[in-house]
Amino acid sequence: MSSSSRAMTMAHRFRGFLPVVVDVETGGFDCNRHALLEIAVIPIHMDGEGWLRADAVVSTHVEPFPGAELDPRSLEVNGIDPQHPLRGAVPEKVALDLIFKPVRAAIRAAGCQRAILVGHNAAFDLGFLNAAIARTDHKRSPFHPFSCFDTVSLAGLAFGQTVLSRAVEAAGRRWDAREAHSAVYDTERTAELFCDIINRWKAFEDQVVPIPA
């Protein structure tokens, strides 16, 4: 391993940003009209050798905001019943506070300045996150408001795959279609995929292999 890789810290790896994987399940595709129904986050940390690892997932079910629309086609895909009595959903402001707390702790532990959202089709997740922040007038979001890392692009580069299930399998990991479209499962698989891709790049750099001109 090169000395530069051994000395790398998360605070230096991504210019002061801490990657945090986010997945949302929603009642449609329009972040301003359709309900946010589930959200899960996984901060990414770096071990002493410079390898990325996924932390524990934090998630919550979310109550539809007043006036939110629910598209039956989206509910059919994600299997969510917003009115289920055992769903344990909380209002958007409570949900944001719940997921932001471990993200802020991870930022401090890594010596970073801010979180950067990692997602599969990240603009979708960031859009719903930002819409909830705006609706609740939340003043302390730890996330960068518009920058993000998209595993669609990264997986397309690394494996030639853009669909999450196929990218996960191309990375050598198992995909369970029965568990898909839950915020927790998709966040865990996306976190593994992100770490796999970044760690493969690190392994390539450590070999000091010249890139062809």
Question: Can you give a write-up of this model?
Answer:
The protein is α/β, with parallel strands linked by helices and 213 residues long. It contains eight helices and six strands. It has helices at 3-7, 10-13, 72-78, 92-110, 122-136, 151-159, 164-170, 183-206; strands at residues 17-26, 36-46, 52-54, 58-61, 114-119, 143-150. Strands 1, 2, 3, 4, 5 and 6 form a six-stranded mixed sheet that branches. Helix 6 (151-159) packs across helix 8. It starts with a helix and ends in a 7-residue tail after the last helix. Mean pLDDT is 94; it is low at 1-6.
Topology:
Layout: H1 3-7, H2 10-13, E1 17-26, E2 36-46, E3 52-54, E4 58-61, H3 72-78, H4 92-110, E5 114-119, H5 122-136, E6 143-150, H6 151-159, H7 164-170, H8 183-206
Parallel strand pairs: 1-5, 5-6
Antiparallel strand pairs: 1-2, 2-3, 2-4
List keywords for this structure.
alpha/beta, 213 residues, 42% helix
Task: Give a short synopsis of this structure.
The protein has 213 residues and is an alpha/beta fold.
Mean pLDDT over the full residue set: 94
Q: DSSP strand (E) fraction?
A: 15-25%
Helical coverage, percent range: 40-55%
- Could you tell me the radius of gyration in angstroms? 18 Å
Give the termini separation: 24 Å
- The coarse silhouette is globular
How many strand units? 6
Low-confidence stretches: 1-6
Count of DSSP H/I helices: 8
